[in-house]
Fold this protein.
Amino acid sequence: MTTHIRINDISPRIQYVGDGVQTQFTFPFPVFNNGDLAVYLGGATQALSVDYTVSGAGADTGGAVTFTIAPGNGALVTLRRNLSIHRTSDFQQSGEFRAKVINDELDYQTAVLQELSEIQSRTPQRAMTSSSTADLTLPDPAAGATLMWNATANGIANGPAAGQISAAQANATAAAGSAASAATSETNAAASAATALAATVGKYDRHVHIAFADSPYTIAAPTVDTLITVDTTAGDVTVNLPASAGEADNRLLGINKSSAVNTVTITPNGTDTVGGLASFVMFDATEWCDLYLDKSAADWQMGNLSYTAAGAGLSKTGSTLSVATGGVGVAMLAAPARPYDIGFTAGFDSTMAPDVLAVRVYGEIVAARAMSLIGEVAAIALAPTGAAAVFDVLLNGVSVYTTKPQFAAATTLTPGVLATTAVAAGDRLTFACTQTGNAEPGRGVTFTMQGELA
């Protein structure tokens, strides 16, 4: 009885890792002919009879591939059955119906189905239990873009570019670094305060202790240099300084805040000043301030000062630094931390499929905040031919460019040269195509105007 290949339940693909010595690699699935086997070394397809030979074609249990040169150590070897999809026999009306022919035909079709099943197993697909009916059609490729679900989760769209993601990560890293620096500054300030306290030993002739119950505390005209330790545990304390007119020049007053909570407000007498200010507030635990009287200027100058400055946009409670009401202003941030990018599209139909460009206005926005323009990025699905596709951005009807950005028969944008960069809140920014290709106009443009909050 004539036999035929038996197609068992087995994957038509197997992989090995080379060691630089082994030349022969077996495959456990049957092939009909030597040419039915595809062989890869790494990602490169190998040539039959040049790079390798095949034995065992027609056998149920598979065969072996022998390389002319042993694959290198660590090289990935892939053996895969690769049949062409066609019918190998044709049965005639009332003709002979032979079992071998039927078996061979069914074996071949079963082998093809095994290959398709193996290929499908390596493709993205929804779980069998998923109830989603989202469209899995991929959008046209856009340079550097990521793939993401669209806003309604019913399809796949191009997402942020890899460069934008990297920039966001860099900003996050910079913010974390700033927070660490702030914590280090606070630690250093506490150490400086301790140093300042140690430096005062033997400097004062008198030491006075006061607390919330003594507030407001007015320093009587002293005859000696005095250190005042203030306990603010129970509440804020105000210390009123003596009039400069009744004091000796270079009189020394030391004020030490000993508690972590509440504040000490130092208030000069009359038109006198403290450090050139009408008053000075101490926040930190163990915050220290030496006041030296400059009698000619009627100013208690501050020296040996130890504290952590809150800085603009921040507030302090004791030694705790936090964002003040109203937050940190935009101008206080580094440029990379205040992006203001505006996106436009041109040459798409109602389903966002690329369509031919036309000379027309494609979009307009009103700036919600003041900003500075710094450039543009863009991508085109199909480049124009015969002439460049040229684009313009107009500020209140006037172009912001001296040289407009364009795609000149290529998918890489030639950037424009900005003539105007300042945009005020309420200004109109209009995006338009001013020229298309005269053979192929070009299709599907995504355009982002890059800016920074002012």
In short: The longest strand covers residues 371-382.
